[in-house]
């Protein structure tokens, strides 16, 4: 099962949707891992849409499970790459070329969607032209409020900042500009008293 | 009356003090013996003489020391001042509003001379005499918002008005009650208020937003907000929480009157003319409990408010761990006598 | 909140015939002081004292937002209307003393825009005149497509094409010239915002075409002041103030409430801002909703009315006012 029902939360926490075909002059789709399933569902609903799309896919730990199925959807252009960092210059290139009328479809982990959304907004695309659908891991992309470093794929609360080493607790407060949730020192008032780590949503 | 400016610190040895006059004019926020969120906005009209509401932008005895503290914080962390690219015009609006208001309200401290777009600004307390061209950023040492806010007490957020919402797209924040401009910049009204407990369920933010979207030029409004801070630390930022957080553990029954401060924010909201944005100044006032209780009405009332405050609010405001000590201390000053309505001393 | 906004006492400094349908009015402060600055797209509400009748009509400010010496507006004569524009055309003379409101902007530029793409039809040009002046000072990127009936009725065409020959495009109806919208919408840079002001048909056409081309609604801004429609007189009970009033044939419900001395909030008086939204306590009859504020649910629920532009036909209407 790759769909997850997130518990209700505060107003700054994104509510991920379900991808739907939309009218547009160009279509950019970015997905990671199980996010491929959302694109396959979208293609089933609107086969012609995929043939107009530029598709960027990052399999992460799913290996070759989805790559062939995505290629079979016959997107106008497809890139399968090892990581967002590797794909970033390509994404920037596509965005710098884009015009109004572009529709963006993001699917997969919160980290991938947060990062790609942040890049698209910075390029000037209106938020309303971006659709999202969460699939797969519930890992989060966390920004340390203290050192500003970003830790990818956080699955526990608290966690250790990959940059400054502080023990951070996981907030639901999310910045679309940064594309990450906020992590705040968990033992600030009583240094060393770090609660035991729990899996997110456990 | 000529203001005497204090030489004091808001960090390290914490030499901040309120004079008798500053205590008397402190903007005490509780108009009754209990507290709950409400859309407590009222017109920001010049208030009683000598009060914190007398002028559009209050300048008090802490001015020079606060500006020194602001420069220190900005030097340590330049991300405390940010403006998204489209907010430049709103920055000029801000500069114009503050310069014209201060020059009119404090002619002995500030002067503004205008000849078309050629302006000269004189800030006597800070020994600044700056000639520049209005709307030409290259004639100022930094952006217009940063320039004037390095000379103005209080934090400022500038809210862009679009899509039937308000977006926090610029600001300078160095005296905040534990929120991060760097993280929140670009968020809309509902998003940056998201972490506040209870108020959403009460519909406070929907009502406040609806009101603010219709806020008109020339008709600013104000409200007070409050929290509790250990030591007179203006910069209680999340960025430095791991540095000031441990100070919360230093409160004892013996030192609570001296170390524990009531922190009040005088928030005003202004429609800016050129950009159609809203200016949101958040002016912080601190008072130690032992000074506050010198006004008997305030001592009685603060005791009752803090004692009866819902746990969620005491937690959100960050003083749940010290509440028992604070309430015990304040109880000495509450003889159970009724208090008069309104915030001002009897 | 009390009705409307802060007021400015002004004198009419100048009345100019722009063409056979349009007159331009210039207002200066009676006390000799400066006008407030404003943002392009803002309007002012002009109070017209016409004998026993008071009308409050919104007009877009067309002068330079940074010019604090005066405000100017342009008024198109509407011979079929309720008389506001006829009053301005026939009765207002230089030297007259009038009262106008502080500027209010319900059609402001999105200052994030990488490019401002403007569409004007007829007298809908006025807010763009101020916006273009604002953008020109700041080196802003804009493009105007302006549709007029004939050269003789093309208000401010010469001024615009002289100042901005590469950015302004004029289309004459009588020469069968039309805006090629589909082509224009294709290839605009990311971050372009569309603005449209003109007849309802034009606004709908631009909005729908943009939507079809994948532009989100948040990138398409429009302003359409609806003039209150005349209609059959009707009676209304005002529950809070305990009054029963009659709304005249050429009077709006809001005007009738005000004429009865009841303070009612408003900003745009054109069905757009939502400020005058009023709760319906009881009704027997049908609503004639003319606003574009209420949602479909609120309309079918029959529990709200926008008294600035909407009317009622039936036996009984009770409002929470």
TrEMBL record, chain A:
Entries under Pfam families matching the protein: DmmA-like_C (PF22289), DmmA-like_N (PF22290)
Residue ranges of domain Dimethylamine monooxygenase subunit DmmA-like N-terminal in the record: 9-128
Record domain Dimethylamine monooxygenase subunit DmmA-like C-terminal: where: 141-184
Keyword annotations: 2Fe-2S, Flavoprotein, Iron, Iron-sulfur, Metal-binding, Oxidoreductase
Record-given protein name: Uncharacterized protein
TrEMBL record, chain B:
Pfam families in alphabetical order: HODM_asu-like
InterPro entries in alphabetical order: HODM_asu-like (IPR021848)
Protein name in UniProt: DUF3445 domain-containing protein
Automatic annotation (TrEMBL), chain C:
Protein's name according to its UniProt entry: PDR/VanB family oxidoreductase
Organism of provenance: Albidovulum litorale
Domain spans labelled 2Fe-2S ferredoxin-type: 234-321
Cofactor(s) essential for the protein: FMN
Record keyword Transmembrane present: no
Alphabetically ordered keywords of this record: 2Fe-2S, Flavoprotein, FMN, Iron, Iron-sulfur, Metal-binding, Oxidoreductase
Record-linked Pfam families: DmmA-like_N, Fer2
InterPro entries reported for this sequence: 2Fe-2S_ferredoxin-like_sf, 2Fe-2S_ferredoxin-type, 2Fe2S_fd_BS, Beta-grasp_dom_sf, DmmA-like_N, FAD-bd_FR_type, FNR_nucleotide-bd, MRET
Keyword Oxidoreductase: yes
Annotated ranges, domain FAD-binding FR-type: 5-110
Domain of life: Bacteria
